[in-house]
Structure formats: C-alpha cells, structure tokens
Structure prediction request, 293 residues.
Amino acid sequence: GYAIAKNSARGMIDSLNNVIIPFKYKYLIQNEDNYVAGTIVNANKWGVLNKQGEIIIPYKYEMIRLFSKDLFRFQKGKKWGIANLQDDWVLNPEYDYIHDFYQEDLAMINKGKKYGLIDKAGNIVVPIKYDRVYYQDSLIAARLGKWGAVDKQGRTIIPHIYDDMSFPNNDRIPVKKQGKWGYINYMNELVIPYQFDYCSMFSNYYSQPYTASVSINKLEGVIDLQGNFIIPCEYQSLSWVNGVYIAKKDNKYGVLDKNGKVKHDFQYKDIMKGEGSRIWGTTDGKTYHNLKR
Prediction:
C-alpha cells in the first residue's frame, strides 16, 4: 500500500487507488510485512492494523514502533516494552527506552542509566548492567566504569581497562589509555602503539586499502592497518572528498592524492565539494574554479 495525506490526515491506498486504510490517522508507520502502526487524529493512542486495514491491536498505547516481523515495541505510560501481534507482552513495559535494531538483529535497551542488548525474539542477550553498549563489526563494546567488550552471552572477551573505545573494523579497535589512542585487535593485542590524540575507525573508501585518520599535536594524518603513515600528521585538517584529500596547512588549502602526493598547491582560501566527482577552489574567496583531480 501507499501512504498519503489528505486534509492533514493520513491513510493508505493500493496501486488501483482503492482506499485500504481510511484517512483519519495522524501518523502511520508501515513495516516490510505491510503491518501498519498508527494513531487516529485527536486520539493520541497507538494501535496496529493489518494490510487489509483491520485493527489487530487496539488503540491503547502511548506510542508504537514496529520492531520485526512478529513483534512491536510499545510505550505504556512512560515505559517501553515489546509485544507480539497477538498483543502478548514479550517484555513488560519497565524499560526507559528500546532502540531500533541494527547489525545482526540486536537492539540496545536501557533501564535507568544502564544498557544492554536484546535480539529480535525479545531475549536479553547482553545484561542491562553497562554504562553504555554498542555493536559494530561483530564486536559488542561495553563500558563498565572502563571500556571493554563482551560476547553475545555477556561474557567479557576484552577486559574493561580502557578509558575510551571507538568503532572497530577489520580487526582494528581504536582504544584510549592514559590520554593517548592506539589500536588493539580482537585478541586484545596492541597492534598500533598509543601515540595519537585522536584516531578514527579504519575504512576503505571506494575500495581503496583500509586507512584511518589520526592526529598528533592537533595536526592530522592518515595511517594504514600496520600503523605506517601514508600521510604524516602535518595538516590542520584533512578530509577525503571525491577520491582525494582536501588538506589545510598554514591556513591555506590544497589537494593530496590517496598517497599524500600534492596535486594542487596550498594556495586556496577554500576548497569545496562539487557535483559528481568535481571539487572547486578559490584563491580570492569569491570566484571558485574547477580543480582537476
């Protein structure tokens, strides 16, 4: 069905313009299985309809978010829970918030200031006891005073000894210890020493080899997976744009290729991204010219 608005009210029609759901709803949210959560104008309560427009969950919740094929998350009073499409509660409404699903069908859930993870069946797979938790690249990072990592059974696999931890990728986890950042692998082995004021997760833009942005003494550079400098930390700013780096040095902008070779000298007051693969530069702050990549 297609959701459309009419006189500030929402409804749904099919491909032949037949009305499936009448135009009396303030909000409508449809999932991939064509179930629809909605609230009637001026009613302020949410329910669930099937793809024929029949009410299968009455309008009694403060808010509903369709969760998975058979479940939805709901707000009852000020608390959140999970129910199935027969309106049986899978998780009682006792949580402060239940977040959207992300990688590998896990969602963050919190109660007070403590966080955990649940699966799409509504099972709590990581206990709600952490100061913060997130999931990325098969790693569940969790803070319990200090940052570490746990598996899907909540067992500690990287000890909670780090002051900070960022998103992992390709067996490289940015971690902070004693004021400096470095990288460990999934075995908790230090693979790139603590030397950075900041470091990003590794990425492979446009199928290039994996690289990460790093900074030392407020100057930025780029390293490879082994910690070798592709671009030394000597730039005030460094941004990957349309297959090149826009760099700032001595308050002027220039362009570097992926290996750090200067393509356009540092003579520009500003360089900006253009349409497609173009980049534009100005020397006077007024007129921009297309810079060849």
